[in-house]
Design goal:
Layout: E1 2-4, H1 7-18, E2 23-28, H2 34-46, E3 49-54, H3 74-84, E4 88-90, H4 94-97, H5 116-119, H6 123-138, E5 142-146, H7 150-162, E6 168-172, H8 192-197, H9 200-213, H10 219-231, E7 237-244, E8 259-267, E9 270-278
Parallel strand pairs: 1-4, 2-3, 2-5, 3-4, 5-6
Antiparallel strand pairs: 7-8, 8-9
Helix pairs in contact: 6-7, 9-10
Length: 292
Amino acid sequence: MQVITTVREMQHASIAFKKTRSLGLVPTMGALHAGHLSLVQRALADCDAVAASIFVNPTQFAAGEDYETYPRTFDNDCAKLEAAGVSLLFAPIAAEMYPAGAATFVEVADLSNRLDGASRPGHFRGVATIVAKLFNIVAPDRAYFGQKDAAQVAVLRAMVRDLNLPIQLIACPIVREPDGLAMSSRNRYLSPDQRRRALILHHSLHAADKLLRSGETCAEALRIAMLDIFAAEPSIRIDYAAIVDPATLLPVADTTHGALLAVAAWVGSTRLIDNLLIEPSSAATPIEAAHA
């Protein structure tokens, strides 16, 4: 695996690879887990070669968030990526991606202010900017993101569409721990007791899933079922429980034509997210079924 730290070198390496091979990109912030590696596996299945990036992006963190303390496990991450079959790893420092005087940002209007964007102002501007830069630097044929970050996927799909980027963006299923907790780099912040209580996010989606399977399609009924689960654990501070269109992130009244059930909550000082994607025209059969 070739480890690259500069934009120019990464651009040259990508051009060389793409002369004879299709290239997939897996952008990450490091602290890798099985969810990230599942993206690599999917990319390897689709493409001739895979590039990954590790970059903790400062512009997507607001003041008071965990940029400084975000887990950084670079050597371990490199070993995992190399073992998984990644050919190129782009790992720049912040000054390489945002040189002095950089003043250009990418913002997907309106969409960036919904779900996580509502509680993290400016977050998706930072995400869209860094992903646009990575797309320009690596020029992949396909890019792979986790469905756990469903709002991010919606924002990036809109960006790719609106900017006519010649890249196929692929969202891959959520990877869960055996007990159903969605894998996240931030899970390592949780104490054993918080780790147990964090399952409430998954349990709330499971409660909605049971209603869906019984034939319920009313979004408000499903949302109430989710909120009832959170009410049983007052130590968890809920950010949102929403049922929205997966592309626009706007609320829907009925799930018959598909929907995204999304939750976010603070467990202690750690903010976690989870979601359930419902297939259009088959409201009782989730695409990403809740773990029983």
